[in-house]
Design a protein that fits this description.
The protein has 369 residues and is mainly beta. It has two domains: 1-268, Thrombin, subunit H; 272-366, Pdz3 Domain (Roll), CATH 2.30.42. The protein has helices at 54-66, 106-109, 250-262, 268-271, 284-290, 308-311, 331-338, and strands spanning 8-9, 13-15, 41-44, 47-50, 70-77, 87-95, 101-105, 114-118, 124-133, 138-142, 164-169, 177-191, 198-205, 217-219, 225-233, 245-249, 273-274, 277-281, 298-303, 319-323, 326-327, 346-353, 356-363, 365-366. β9 and β10 (138-142) form a beta hairpin. The longest helix is centred in the first third of the chain and has 13 residues, at 54-66.
Length: 369
């Protein structure tokens, strides 16, 4: 089912861990012995080099700006018992404070018992998880370093379709790899399934993103972070897809990073109310397709077992239309009302359930509960 933000549920959506990318040189075309008369070639010792275009120069400049702010992340997860297996993981991150705070995806460092961070100068540090936000799949780690170069964020609300998008990271341990593409789409909503959140408002790009890129930056031609590379779609059981990468918008990442730093020591997901449901905005198209009684509201896609939502009687297919008597038309409005409330608060929801308008009372909890 698609929402007005083009929500996608993929059967084979891959979560990608990242690190970062290195120097990108202009394409070099050379001829050994002899001369070329084509315009735009520079000759040196009988070797002809293609002159850099303005776009190539912009890309090189952007990479030079961001590279010192990008890190490689290696993780190790110890086996908890003889019935479980440990493992290693890779990812990327960006420096958000000069005293060693680094932002990455939560799934990059989830359950990690050891975190190793490598800077672009080759220095390695032991990383410590400071805070994480499960709803946005972002995490903050800290290394014992100072005078680091902080990544500059651009305004992701000003990102345009077709503009240059550059990914830098550690795909498959090919450290500091740079890939170039464009912004392919905006405001993508994606249900990654499993225990992962529904990602909202993502930036889609065709810049090549692979396992190991998660947590690394998607930047514009000015070297500003416009997104955090997070997902790739590789296709379904019967189809193969290429060029479908997704990034958390830079404005969202910057906001969450600031919150994680301010609330360091406790996980953000554990300090905010939780009811245990996955949601999707109802649209007019969705309502017509499925015969919903309303064209606005928030559709309950899934209810987690033993959650406050399940205990309160919410079911998949229900549509939440008001909270404490206040109408809600979107997921964002619902979260805006619930976020300031504390665990233990009783909240009455107005819900369409099997064609009838009913009331449901939910007792808010924290995720840790």
């Amino acid at each position: 089912m698609l929402s007005d933000k083009n929500k996608i549920s993929f059967q084979k959506l891959l979560i990608i861990n990242t690190v970062m990318s290195a120097f990108i040189g202009g394409l070099i075309v050379f001829f050994l012995g002899g001369y070329a008369t084509s315009a735009g070639l520079i000759f040196s010792n009988n070797v002809a080099y293609a002159a850099l275009t303005s776009q190539e120069q912009a890309v090189i400049s952007a990479i030079k700006k961001i590279k010192p702010s990008v890190v490689n992340i290696d993780t190790y997860v110890a086996a908890k018992s003889y019935l479980s297996q440990g493992g290693e993981g890779i990812g990327s991150g960006i420096i958000v404070r000069e005293n060693g705070y680094i932002l990455t995806n939560r799934h990059v460092i989830r359950d990690a018992t050891n975190i190793t961070v490598t800077l672009d100068n080759g220095k390695q540090y032991s990383g410590k998880l400071v805070n994480a936000h499960s709803e946005y799949d972002l995490a903050l780690i800290k290394i014992n370093a100072s005078s680091l170069k902080v990544a500059k964020f651009g305004d992701s609300t000003k990102v345009k379709l077709g503009q240059t998008a550059i990914a830098i990271g550690n795909p498959l341990h090919f450290s500091w790899t740079v890939t170039l593409g464009v912004v392919s789409a905006l405001e993508r909503d994606i249900d990654a399934g499993g225990n992962l959140p529904i990602y909202r408002g993502l930036i889609q790009t065709d810049a090549a993103i692979n396992p190991g890129n998660s947590g690394g930056p998607l930047i514009n031609s000015d070297g500003e972070v416009i997104g955090i590379n997070t997902l790739i779609f590789s296709g379904t059981d019967t189809t193969v897809a290429q060029g479908l990468g997704f990034a958390i918008p830079g404005n969202t990442a910057k906001k969450v990073a600031n919150e994680l730093i301010q609330n360091k020591g406790t996980t953000s997901s554990g300090s905010k109310p939780w009811i245990g449901i996955k949601l999707q905005n109802v649209t007019r198209q969705l309502a017509q397709q499925w015969g919903f009684p309303t064209s606005t509201g928030v559709l309950v896609v899934n209810v987690i077992a033993n959650s406050p939502a399940q205990r309160g009687g919410l079911c998949p297919g229900d549509i939440i239309v008001d909270v404490r008597g206040k109408p809600v038309k979107t997921y964002e409005e619902l979260i805006g009302i619930l976020s300031p409330l504390k665990a233990g608060t009783a909240v009455e929801l107005g819900v369409w359930h099997e064609g009838r308008k009913v009331k449901r009372e939910i007792i808010l909890e924290t995720l840790s509960q």
